Amino acid sequence: MSSSESVGENYDAIASEYADNLFNELEAKPLDRHLLNRFAEEVRGRGSVADIGCGPGQVARYLSDQGVRIIGIDLSEEMVRVATRLNPKIEFRADNMLSLDLADESFAGIVAFYSIIHLEPADISAAFREFRRLLSNDGVLFIAFHIGDHVHHVDEMWGKPVSLDFHFLRPADVSRALKATGFRVTEETEREPYEGAEHPSRRCYLFARPMGEK
């Protein structure tokens, strides 16, 4: 079984629990809402936007409520079913961010909240190359991830057995990978965790834009 298949199957197993516990998480995260509002201001009315690694669709729903035309994409087919049930007005589809079945320059924006954290380091650049292929030349990429240089393994989530590796990443490394795949980072924000609302780790948010033509 490939790493992607394993991740997808693990999230298939906990899709309902994930939604029950995290669908309303943005209510307790004011900086996340602020940055998503800024992203929405940039992409609203400019075309379709992809939420890659969308989970149950909480970010897609938030952006849709801000007037963004969005599609949610997730590796887990069960997560896509849950997201569709919770957000019937938004389109969701199952696909692999390393090789998406979509045309070049399909999107004016891509948001990827904690969706690169299950990738092996060698695959992060492959994901960024795919993001670059999908973005218009004047598009905007907005990503979020845990800050660190270690792997956090979990065997249980919400009472269900899983086997998932969460890769904590150094912002400088992510910025270098973005630059190597045709992006320039335009903004970087870090914050401490919101106590009681999430895993106790520092968070990084990066806005990036394509560097000229492909």
Explain this structure to me?
The structure is a single chain. This protein is of the alpha/beta class and 214 residues long. 36% of the residues lie in helices and 30% in strands. The protein has 6 helices and 9 strands. A 7-stranded mixed sheet has the order 3-2-1-4-5-9-8, with helices on both faces. β6 and β7 form a beta hairpin. α5 crosses α6. The longest helix is centred in the N-terminal third of the chain and has 20 residues. The termini are far apart.
Rg calculated over all Cα atoms:
16 Å
Q: Termini separation (Å)?
A: 33 Å
The largest sheet is: 7 strands, mixed
> Structural class of the helices, strands and pairings?
alpha/beta
Strand content: 25-35%
Secondary-structure element string: HHEHEHEEHEEEHEE
DSSP E strands, number: 9
Shape: globular
Number of helices, counting only DSSP H or I runs of 4 residues or more: 6
- Mean pLDDT score: 96
* Helix amount: 25-40%
Q: Which sequence of strands runs across the widest sheet?
A: 3-2-1-4-5-9-8
Spans of 5+ residues with little confidence (pLDDT < 50)?
A: none
